[in-house]
Amino acid sequence: MPDGTRTPELPDVPAEAAPYRVGYQGQEGAFGARAAHRRGLPAGFDSFERLLAALSAGAIEAAVLPAVNRIAGALVEPLEALAAELVEKGSRLRVVAEVPVPVRLVLAAPRGVDPEEIREVHSQLQILRQCRKLVTRLGAVAVESADTAVAAARVAELGGPRAAVSSEEAALAAGLVLLEEDVSDVRPNVSRFWLLERTEGPGRTPTAARTGADEAGLDGGFPLPPPPEPRVVLFRSARQLSTLSDAGAEVVTLPGDADVPVRGFAIVPEKACGAVAAKGTREGEPPLVWLGPPPEFVRPPRIPGLPRATEVKPPVAVAIGPFAAGAGRRAVIAGPCAVESPEQVLRIAKAVARAGATALRGGVFKPRTSPYAFQGHGLEGLRWLRAAGDSVGLPIVTEVMAPAQVEPLARLADVLQIGARNSQNFDLLREAGGAGRPVLLKRGFGTTVEEWLASAEYVLAAGCRDLILCERGIRTFERTTRGTLDLGGMLAARSLTSLPLIVDPSHAAGRRDLVVPLARAAWGAGADGLIVEVHDTPEAALSDGAQALLPADLEALCDEIGVLPGEDGSVERVRTAIDAVDREISALVSRRLELCRRVAGAKRRLGRPIRDEAREATVKARFAEALGGSVPETGAERLADALIGLGLHAEGWPGAGAPEGPDA
Q1: pLDDT tens figures, 250-282
Q2: Are 20 and 42 in contact (CB under 8 A)?
Q3: CA 461, CA 469: separation in Å to the nearest integer?
Q4: How many other β-carbons are positioned within 10 Å of the β-carbon of residue 233?
Q5: What is the rounded CA–CA span in Å between residue 341 and residue 337?
Q6: Are 398 and 416 in contact (CB under 8 A)?
Q7: What is the tens place of the pLDDT at every residue in 317-344?
Q8: Within 10 A of 408 (CB to CB), how many other CB atoms are there?
Q9: Which domains does the chain possess?
Q10: Model pTM?
């Protein structure tokens, strides 16, 4: 890897054999290196100017440039270097993706240096701005370095009462001892890097496809031709206003307008872009620089041809009464495969509501492989399902099989389900999409993720406002299960759509013993909900009894994944859920105490004091924030104190009055 002191020499390799080289400013161990590693083969440069010049010249295929930090806002130095490259040199570059990188900074010093001895803190200028409170608390002088890895190496070389603020990786590589961790003024801290490519010029033709899916939801990139006039505005949509006006910052002069320097940039919401542009062009005001499309620009969908299903927007939720799935809200839909009688569906409705389900499912029209199998009770069964749902306060979900069934089902059902067999029945998709009801669309046995989303497009194009996607297993060579639950496909769909995604472990398994493990896996993978089949006498069920959970199984599953019991549940049911929580708390406390023992051992080996009062205060603040208004403030503090006291005992200290306390 390059040492960061010069522009690396990169051989001219034929395009078909060359790697996708991503340049960054700094040395290995810097946060820019992390961003570059995520996108291709990293190549370090000792300055932003050389990095961008190499990109423009075709020496590398892409570059990552730090643009915005959660604490410091827009980052002056790299953006001004970009302005100079675009405006003064006329380079043709574009932003093809945004790479968010968590910034977890540590304070590190040579072995034997105590924090109170530190007189200098070395780091990159942008990083020092993110740790002002730390530098002030130490009473030290901030010393600028080219990047955080260089800072760590420099402190190790000089020794003495100095420290570096860097990544843990860079500090350990330099042989420094970690004194404090996560020292940013605001935590968690994140920097957003722009991935830049050329729009034309020497080297290989750039392609945004090589970078993978845009992690910020900005697929395809923005073409950036040289500005037609010097007074233009830097624009990134949906971002907080952040103008750069640091006193004393070096300015960039635009050609033909030598008396009007570029003060910096503005990152603004779309609606405010015009106002900011106008402000930047008033007489006597330095102009801003615009990187990107005009305010009326509409981000392209993630998949061309599917503008609704793959529209770039925040995750959406579908909510009906107590049911809500998507945008951070999660749900459990439960009930029998088939509605068999008024009594049966009412019994099961009460059982699933008691367990914690937020919607009741039940089939009244049944698509069966055999024409001689039970086909459902039709509209009469729908009335039984509706009555059962109303009796327990749950919305009802039922499957529709044909366009002619949509209108009568939509009169009573809260959600229309389109099953796997009909996932590409386009007439049905259109009819259900125009019914004015939420739709739950299952993935077909053999459909790809893109075909699944294309089916969703039919539903949305017909006017549906609330659509839920359901992964229910695909058909593979495996015969030990009914289907193969494709959680990878679900996660791939997550990156392509903002629609809620739930999972049906019952149909994927086809076996009761596998339903709960698959449900756990789906929940852990981030599914927005589950739809499971439940029957109180599965051996006598008229449909799919072999894959139906018992009501007690559903209760245990809900307790395990953290779904609360129904509000009308019995005292015993709620106490069972409390017992499950207590078991989790006990296991977590045991794990925490073991971690306290291990970190205490690590600190002793490094010669660091065991007690860290600042860390203890952070833990107390975390508990106060997490518990919010659910307990009195003193209650949160007492809970934190109790854990700290247990840590004290686990580390072998004689008591709370000991000179040093536990690691928190």
Answers
A1: 333 333 333 333 333 443 334 444 444 444 444
A2: no
A3: 15
A4: 24
A5: 12
A6: yes
A7: 999 999 999 999 999 999 999 999 999 9
A8: 13
A9: 105-181 (3.40.190.10), 230-247+261-295 (no CATH), 329-366+373-569 (3.20.20.70), 583-650 (1.20.59.10)
A10: 0.62
